[in-house]
Amino acid sequence: MPFLGKAERSVRELYQDDPERSDALVWGRRGALQGAALGAMGAALGATIPFAARLPGGLLPAALAQPTSAEGGPRMVQLEGKAPLILQGERPLNAETPETLLDDDVTPAEKMFVRNNGQVPDAPSDPRTWKIRIDGEVNRPLELTVGELEGGRFPLVTRRLQLECGGNGRSFFSPETRGNQWGNGAVSCAEWTGVRLRDLLLAAGLKESAKFTGHYGADPHLSGDQERQAISRGMRIEKAQDEDTLVAIRMNGQLIPLIHGAPVRLVTPGWPGSLSQKWLTRIWIRDRPHDGQGMGGTSYRVPVRPIVPGSRNDGSEFRELESMPVRSILTNLSHGTRLPVGTREVNLRGHAWAGDKTVRAVHASIDFGATWREMRTDPPSNRYAWQRWSGRVDLPSDGYFEVWYRATDSDGLMQPHIAANWNPQGYGSNAVSRAAIMVG
Ligand SMILES: Nc1nc2c(c(=O)[nH]1)N[C@H]1C(S)=C(S)[C@@H](COP(=O)(O)O)O[C@H]1N2
Ligand SMILES: [Mo]
After folding, report:
1. Which of 118, 240, 296, 407 is the most buried (most CB within 10 A)?
2. Does 50 reside within a domain?
3. What is the number of other CB atoms lying within 10 angstroms of the CB of residue 58?
4. pLDDT attached to residue 35
5. Residue 60's pLDDT is what?
6. Would you state the pLDDT for residue 29?
7. Nearest ligand, CA of residue 275?
8. What is the pLDDT of residue 327?
9. Is 272 within a domain?
10. Whether residues 288 and 202 fall in one domain
11. What is the CA(236)–ligand 2 centre distance, in A?
12. pLDDT at residue 72, rounded to an integer
């Protein structure tokens, strides 16, 4: 049962309308939670805040700062063959998976987020005759049908691969950035079957000059203009030669659903999802970085030296977003959950991943980050699969708590407390997540 009501909403509205004044009201001039304000906030939340003394100065409790789905937060959408997803936009069609639906080790089709830049093409009448082409800086341009891809000339491999939108977590940037306001749910880890792109590149014979790829799909541009691509991105040839970069023809043992790129798509795990071209028709091997739709400027690029949040920038000094940053999700407990009076321990469970790297540890805190408990983190079932984490936290009393969860990657990099390295299109936001819970 959700615990947020009218009183909290008014605090939130106040905060949104006039953050400075409400900060002064709630926090006092020194940014510390004042005695009376603490009481008022406790009353607004309908509970005491046992760890109030550990709440960092200036931080608004998550129950007030982040809407929960139960109280008119995100709009949901029911797409054919899908679980209820969070609607991000209708044209193009974009939908996010609620974090608690991402509990499966292998994400089923109905729980996969949907990200389109253009229109969804019509279903192919005969998928087996669909052709892909590999050309450009190769010795023997290749044209292959889906039937030929299945035919045994190239080994078929099956892998669990995380596919995450480059803008996942964008909604946590402040000030707000352009694009779908994803929470943590623009990610999936399905089981993909296909041929290795590297095997196709070997068959085509890369020339010395082959340095980059450019990808094309069959989805029409939103405008309907046939000359324009909905999206056409590309990457360094090294990633194309990675043994886990697949030209996939099956997902979770079935034909790929239309909305996820039937009959054939690229899966480029650990890098921005936009490199996993759906409805694949062509891979152009190039001697220079690709210049298609979604390349250059501030598209899928992040600052090398931090820029002023909210400032304008042409991105000419940015770098490509390649390996995605470390992130964790909590899948068995949603933000805004009420637990029975007297609950003194809570089991937690979720997944974590870190682009090309692995996750070394996941920690959870219930006292606003003052103390952390290490959770158990399982190894990935194969390279590029997300990792299961699980554990327990103990609660000292009834009241308002926040579960903070944070992963650390194999190089020791942790999720930052606040979304870092702000950029105009909002890539790479992987701040520590907070789920408010109320006991009693
Ligand atoms: N042809 C084509 N491929 C595409 C896209 C698209 O709009 N058109 N969107 C990309 C983006 S931005 C992401 S995050 C993933 C999303 O994959 P999904 O919709 O299967 O979850 O597909 C990528 N491949
Ligand atoms: Mo994306």
Report:
1. 407
2. yes
3. 12
4. 65
5. 83
6. 47
7. 1
8. 98
9. yes
10. yes
11. 18
12. 59
Minimal-distance CA residue to ligand 1 atom 12: 274
CB atoms within 10 A of CB 384: 24
Tell me: do 269 and 128 sit in the same domain: yes
Which amino acid does the sequence have at 159?
A: R
Give the number of domains in the chain: 2
Contact 182, 241 (CB under 8 A): no
Q: How far apart are the first and last CA of the chain?
A: 11
Alpha carbons 245 and 225: distance in angstroms, whole number: 30
- Residues with C-beta atoms within 5 A of ion ligand 2: 115, 165, 273-274
Q: Provide the b/e sequence for 306-338 (b: ≥16 CB within 10 Å).
A: ebeeeeeeebeebebbbebbbbbbbbebbbbbb
Token readout for 296 is: 């250059």
- Kindly give the distance from the C-alpha atom of residue 165 to the centroid of ligand 2, in angstroms, as a whole number: 4
pLDDT in the model for residue 322: 98
Residue with the smallest CA separation from ligand 1 atom 21 is 114
Looking from the CA of residue 294, the nearest atom of ligand 1 is 12
Per-residue pLDDT at 30: 47
Cα dihedral 250, 252, 253, 258 sign: negative
- Residue among 86, 117, 187, 290 to mutate when testing ligand 1 (max atoms within 8 A of CB): 117
Taking the CA of 427 as reference, the closest ligand is 2
Give the whole-angstrom CA distance, residue 276 versus residue 24.
47
Q: Which residues in the chain land under pLDDT 70?
A: 1-37, 40, 46, 67-72
Distance CA 41, CA 39 (A): 5
Instruction: Spell out which residues line ligand 1, taking CB within 6 angstroms.
Output: 112-118, 165, 188, 217, 219, 230-231, 260-261, 273-274, 276-279
Strand partners, 250: 193, 255
- Are residue 205 and residue 277 in the same domain, yes or no? yes
Q: What is the pLDDT of residue 1?
A: 39
Report how far ligand 1's centroid is from the alpha carbon of 279 (Å). 9
- Print the domain residue range for 39: 6-68
